[in-house]
Structure formats: structure tokens, C-alpha cells
């Protein structure tokens, strides 16, 4: 098979650095048909910013995966709690789920959580000392959001590390067997957790969450699926957000020095950090339910659609000199959290966690530096998310 006919989103070079691939594809056409996988299947990939925004809000693009695969054979074996979430549904089912999820992450609710997030960061950094080495991913970027979202769901501390590992497995692009097995581990665990809480009166975080689900009209299975989505999406992308942001700053010393000298600028820098290296590279599955036109391209009904926020956020038509990290840029139009009715409801929490973590790192260890070449750092092999598997630092 020629290189032209191969899936561009599965090339090893794409996982290491997707942006040259995105630039090449966008230059050819910001909406184009590409091969996906190895079974002769195709999808439409959207790499332009204006086209991505348009697609995110087009009601003819459905996220109901069950509807798409109803008459198509599939060899996947995902647990229902993972395969049937708010992310894989359309209104009105999506509306009911979102009505429960959104109040959990309002600006006011996140403001109340900030002292707890700060305590978690303090605890994680309590053993760090200048002159020692850490892995920012393992020592901060993973445990911080895992701890926070598990606390919100009432997941016991003893189970959190394993759940985090299985969540990472869900995004493995190399082995669907690993992904499917991880989905069953998480789905079964959360089903048991929810069933135990439903059978045992209490006032803990999980009981509060389940009352919200009941009041919102969600049944038991829907409550489990929402818990699964909050667990996975509530920490996976935030982990990558923190790791990507720290690496971006270390690779741009002027920007890093500016934030070190003026930590109050960190909240305003988050949009540009999200734009520059988005933790969501390609958004989750959509398909066309009718013939439609996006940009200058006609798309027939019944085709998969892949919207790439990672590509859209580097579109020079919207963000001049997009491959440069510019803290003075107005990057508020980035699509790292999506757009439209499926925009990530947990965005305020992710921003708060990243802000508090970056502020603590830069103020306590202002001269921290990499201990390995930036270009050699391994990345997760996933087309959906972009994140580091390790970020070795020397504290100073």
C-alpha cells in the first residue's frame, strides 16, 4: 500500500508530532476524505478552524454511535458504561445527561473546590526538594486530576491508581483488545460502586451525585455511564493539559521566565497553552445523518466525521504564526474543549487544576529544567488525545 493510501493518523510520526501531518492535510484541503484503520474504511477529517467550528454545531452530525453501527458489523466489545455515554448520544438523551453534569463544574462550584485542589497539590509536592528529580507526569499531572475527580465521585483511595491506569488504556491506539478490556474493568467497577451506594443510605459525594442523577431523570445504567465519563474525561485530558503546558513553557524560555516573574499572568496564559498543544487532538466520533456541505466539501450521509481540534488550533487563517507560543495572543477561540452542545462541561475544573499546579511549580521551583531532550520524550499512542507518558525534570 502506498503512503498516500495509509491512515495518516496512525503513522508513528503522527503520535510523536501530529502538527506537520495536520499542516500538510490542511494545506491540501481543510476537509478531506482519508483512509482510517486497515480495513478499507474512510472518514472525513476536518483540520481547518472555521470548518471545525461549523462542524461542531451542525445538528446533522450525530454522535449516536449505536445508531451508526446498528447495521454495520463491529468486532469491538466495549462495556456499555463506556460505549453509551453523553459523548455518544444526541438530544434529547444528551440533554438529560448534560443537565446533570453541568452543575457539577460551574464557576461557583469550582471556586469552592480550589482550596481542596490546592491541598492536593501541596500534598503531592510535599516531598519535592531542590536538586532532586521528578517525573511531572507520574508525580503531579496524573494524580492531581485523578484525586479530584475520584473525590467528587467517592471512589476509595485504594482504587484510584488502578482506575487511572485503566483509563489510560482506553486511549491505546495500538490494541483494541487492551481498550475493550479496560472499558470492562472501569464499567464493572463503577457499576458495583453505584449499586453499593444505591443500596446503602449515606451523604457522601457519590450519594450526592446519584441524587442529582435521579432528580435529572437518569436511571441506574445512565448514572453509571455518566460516572464513567466524568472519571475518564475528568482526568485524562487534564493530565495531558498539565504535561503539555509545562513542556511548552520549558521549550519557550522567554514565556517561562515571564510567568515565573509574574505568576498572576498564568490564568490568562492557559488559553494559549491549550491552543498551542491541545490535549484533545481528534474529537470523538461523529457521523453524517444527511448530505451536507462543510467548507467547500460535499459530504454524503452515513460517513464518519473526525474533527481535529489539535489541527484547528494551529490553523494560520485564525491564529497567525500558529507554531509559536505567544502569551500575548488572544487565543480564546481555541477548540481544545470543543464547541457547541458537546463542549466539555468540566473545562472550568481543568483550568483551575492546571492553573494551581503551574503556579505552585513555577513559584516553588523557579529554575526547574528538563533532564532529557524534549524531542525524545515519549507520547501516548492515541489519535484522540495528545499527552506525554513521562516528563523528567530536575527541580531547582
Automatic annotation (TrEMBL):
Gene3D superfamilies (UniProt xref): Cytochrome P450
Key word Oxidoreductase present: yes
Keywords assigned by UniProt, alphabetized: Heme, Iron, Metal-binding, Monooxygenase, Oxidoreductase
The keyword Metal-binding is assigned to this record: yes
Assigned protein family: Belongs to the cytochrome P450 family.
Protein name: Cytochrome P450
Amino acid at each position: 500500500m502506498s503512503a498516500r493510501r495509509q491512515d495518516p493518523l496512525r503513522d508513528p510520526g503522527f503520535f510523536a508530532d501530529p502538527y506537520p501531518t495536520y499542516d500538510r492535510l490542511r494545506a491540501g484541503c481543510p476537509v478531506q476524505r482519508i483512509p482510517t484503520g486497515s480495513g478499507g474504511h474512510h472518514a472525513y477529517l476536518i483540520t481547518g478552524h472555521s470548518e471545525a467550528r461549523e462542524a461542531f454545531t451542525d445538528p446533522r452530525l450525530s454522535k449516536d454511535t449505536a445508531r451508526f453501527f446498528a447495521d454495520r458489523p463491529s468486532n469491538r466489545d466495549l462495556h456499555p458504561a463506556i460505549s453509551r455515554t453523553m459523548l455518544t448520544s444526541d438530544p434529547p438523551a444528551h440533554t438529560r445527561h448534560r443537565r446533570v453534569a453541568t452543575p457539577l463544574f460551574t464557576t461557583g462550584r469550582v471556586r469552592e473546590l480550589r482550596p481542596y485542589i490546592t491541598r492536593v497539590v501541596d500534598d503531592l509536592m510535599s516531598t519535592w526538594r531542590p536538586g532532586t528529580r521528578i517525573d511531572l507526569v507520574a508525580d503531579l499531572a496524573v494524580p492531581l486530576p485523578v484525586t479530584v475527580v475520584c473525590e467528587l465521585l467517592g471512589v476509595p483511595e485504594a482504587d484510584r491508581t488502578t482506575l487511572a491506569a485503566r483509563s489510560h488504556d482506553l486511549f491505546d491506539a495500538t490494541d483494541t483488545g487492551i481498550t475493550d478490556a479496560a472499558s470492562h474493568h472501569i464499567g464493572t467497577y463503577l457499576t458495583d460502586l453505584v449499586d453499593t451506594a444505591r443500596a446503602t443510605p449515606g451523604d457522601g459525594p457519590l450519594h450526592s451525585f446519584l441524587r442529582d442523577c435521579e432528580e435529572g431523570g437518569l436511571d441506574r445504567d445512565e448514572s453509571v455511564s455518566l460516572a464513567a465519563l466524568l472519571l475518564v474525561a475528568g482526568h485524562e485530558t487534564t493530565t495531558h493539559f498539565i504535561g503539555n503546558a509545562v513542556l511548552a513553557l520549558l521549550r519557550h524560555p522567554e514565556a517561562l521566565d515571564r510567568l515565573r516573574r509574574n505568576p498572576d499572568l498564568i490564568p490568562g496564559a492557559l488559553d494559549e497553552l491549550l491552543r498551542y498543544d491541545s490535549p484533545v487532538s481528534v474529537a470523538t466520533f461523529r457521523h453524517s445523518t444527511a448530505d451536507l456541505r462543510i467548507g467547500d466539501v460535499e459530504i454524503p450521509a452515513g460517513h464518519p466525521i473526525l474533527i481535529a481540534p489539535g489541527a484547528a488550533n494551529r490553523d494560520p487563517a485564525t491564529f497567525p504564526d500558529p507554531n509559536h507560543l505567544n502569551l500575548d495572543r488572544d487565543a480564546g477561540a481555541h477548540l481544545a474543549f470543543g464547541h457547541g452542545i458537546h463542549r466539555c462541561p468540566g473545562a472550568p475544573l481543568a483550568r483551575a487544576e492546571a492553573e494551581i499546579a503551574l503556579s505552585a511549580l513555577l513559584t516553588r521551583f523557579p529554575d526547574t529544567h528538563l533532564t532529557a531532550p524534549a524531542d525524545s520524550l515519549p507520547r501516548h499512542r492515541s489519535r484522540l488525545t495528545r499527552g506525554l507518558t513521562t516528563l523528567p525534570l530536575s527541580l531547582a
